[in-house]
Design brief:
- The structure holds 2 protein chains of 2 kinds.
- Chain A has 8 helices and no strands.
- Chain A is mostly helical.
- Chain A folds into 2 domains: about 10-95, RNA polymerase sigma factor, region 2, helix turn helix motif (Rna Polymerase Sigma Factor, Chain: A); about 110-185, Orthogonal Bundle (Arc Repressor Mutant, subunit A), CATH 1.10.10.
- The longest helix of chain A is centred in the last third of the chain and has 21 residues, at about 165-185.
- Chain A is globular and about 55 Å long.
- By secondary structure, chain B is an alpha+beta fold.
- Chain B has 2 domains: about 5-40, no CATH class; about 60-195, Immunoglobulin-like (Sandwich), CATH 2.60.40.10.
- Chain B has helices at about 5-10, 25-40, 50-55, 60-70, 80-95, and strands spanning about 110-120, 125-130, 140, 150-160, 160-170, 170-175, 180-185, 190-195.
- In chain B, a hairpin with a 5-residue loop joins strand 7 and strand 8.
- Chain B is elongated and about 85 Å long.
- The chains are: A mainly alpha, B alpha+beta.
- At the A-B interface, helix 2, helix 3, helix 4, helix 5 and helix 6 of A face helix 1, helix 2 and helix 3 of B.
Amino acid sequence: MSSAARGGEPSDADIIARVLGGDAEAFGLIIRRYEGGLLRYATRMLGSADAAADAVAEGLVRAYRHLAGCRDPSRLKSWLYRIVGNRCRSHLARRSSSDVSLEDAPPIVDGRDSEAETERADQLERVERALQTLSPEKREAFLLKHVEGLSYEEMAAATGERIPTLKMRVHRARAALLEVLKAEP
Amino acid sequence: MKPIDPLVNRVLDGELPPEVLTPAQRAELARLDRVATLLAEVPPASVANRVMAEVRRPLPGVVERLVRWFGERHTVTISVRPAWSLAVAAVLAALAIIPGRAPAPVLGSQEGIAQFVGRFPGAKSVEVVGSFTDWRPGAVVLRDDDHDGVWRAAVVLPVGQHEYMFVVDGEQWVTDPLAGRFVDDGFGRQNSLLIVRPVSR
């Protein structure tokens, strides 16, 4: 979603100005706009729906309290992914890899009432398992690029890494994912 | 690990159109597209209510915190960081032996005294904001009574880990260089980290 106003919706800059002007409820518009992507990103990073919800909730509260520090409202999206990414990294640092549980990940595909849905759910499970075999850095780079649709410039703002570093991580993540999926039965 | 053909990577990075790829390379591209599509499902969860409850929650003011603290029964003295332990002990000892002074506060088992000291010559005001003030100013104000540029404050904090920063003249956020521990604040800067631990009795 661009920061510019589209289809009558206020821009990110407008919403930020309203919140900083005292209209705390307007922060709900920012939540509505970015919550889905942030939850998806954190869930894929952590492999746990509960941990992801904590990371996103903590990140959004933090963003609200530091909103005045968001010097460039047009980069709000990168800023939010940076905050939530940091929460995810803290969470990953606190727990051992053995704590990562795909069983804890949400059953995003619910409807198993058809063969196609069942197959899709199986595929998703395989992909999620393959994703968890990547290092957090490669996983983060792949998710930001291919799932969250950030440009390399936005990724650099969100991670604090240089663009060539991010490109290398994305390239290696692609190759590693294909390799793992190819090896799966 | 077999690397992906550089052409496929360049197409995926938006540098080349897909038409440059061979059928085999396009199949590789399609597999990665499929992976991204599967992962693009949005979890059916929401944290909106939880976040907005925090946004709406009023913070207790300084007076309210002080009234609450003095109204409670406190029994244990707790040190802060090792570097400050001696200073805290000295302050408590001084408070105990100076006649006519109020007795040192007696702390609860889950509280400690944190001393904040910063050198800011020429500053008009210095305060501390942190996780314990929900990052709002106005709760912990430092003083420089002898005008030597060294600002000080002591506050009672719950046992645990707290992030904080100095705010100088109401606008300049400064990391405490003496903190010893730091944590990324998510905005490209570092918060100082303070750990309040219970002392053994």
